[in-house]
Amino acid sequence: MQINGPAPDVLTFAGNGEPTAHPEFAGIIEDTLALRNQYFPAAKVSVLSNSTFIHKKEVFDALNKIDNNILKLDTVDLDYIHRVDRPTGHYDLNRLIERMKDFKGNLIIQTMFMKGTTDEGVDVDNTSDQYVLPWLEVVKQITPKQVMIYTIDRETPDLSLRKATHEELDRIVNLIRQAGIQASASY
User: Fold this and answer.
1) What are the backbone angles phi and psi of residue 82, rounded to the nearest 5°?
2) Lesser CB count within 10 Å: N end or C end of the chain?
3) For 121-169, what is each residue's pLDDT tens digit?
4) Same structural domain for residues 15 and 47?
5) Are 110 and 176 in contact (CB under 8 A)?
6) Are the CB atoms for 58 and 90 separated by under 8 Å?
């Protein structure tokens, strides 16, 4: 790539699964940073994470070294989390939030907003103030360098789920910006 191009802008860890779950994640990040520095020093290193392993010191330390530490926080409503995200095992939202604060701004929060109902008819619209305002208060406490919001991009297994509208996402972005935090929306 150095000879023939193109030079990468960003080296991103993402995909079907949680990158930070890999037992050698910290070493992989160290190797990636060394190779990036040697071959493409202008490239950024990004990790898209669901935040479940940030309590592990080696994961936290590795994420703190990269350019774009992108952590999911879809809501701060535990009932919604259990209904929609369905974490397995023990899930401690307060511990996760406190650990996000420990990054001292060296993170980007990524949040998905959507509408619709589950197959059982349960409302999963998290675009209302009932969900947005408490989430925003926590985001302000975390002090991320940026917030990226988005909505459903492709068909989901539950066909009753729908995209949040441009207007709803724009309203949320404006609230984030009014709080003094850089924000963007993907429609």
Assistant:
1) -70, -30
2) N
3) 889 999 999 999 999 999 999 999 999 999 998 877 777 889 999 999 9
4) yes
5) no
6) no
Contact 145, 134 (CB under 8 A): no
Question: CA 111 from chain center: how many Å?
Answer: 6
How do residues 9-27 score in pLDDT, each as one tens digit? 999 999 778 999 999 999 9
Backbone angles phi, psi at 166, to 5 degrees: -55, -40
> What DSSP character marks residue 181?
-
Extended strands (E) in 43-154: 44-49, 68-72, 108-112, 114-116, 146-150
**φ and ψ at residue 159, rounded to 5 degrees:** -70, -10
Assess whether 108 and 163 both reside in one domain: yes
User: Token pair of 109, please?
Assistant: 């929060």
Q: Residue 139 belongs to what domain range?
A: 73-187
**Of 92, 109, 24, whose CA–CA distance to 62 is shortest?**
24
Q: Are residues 130 and 64 in the same domain?
A: no
Domain count, the chain: 2
Element (H, E) at 13: strand 10-13
Residues 105, 148 within the same domain: yes
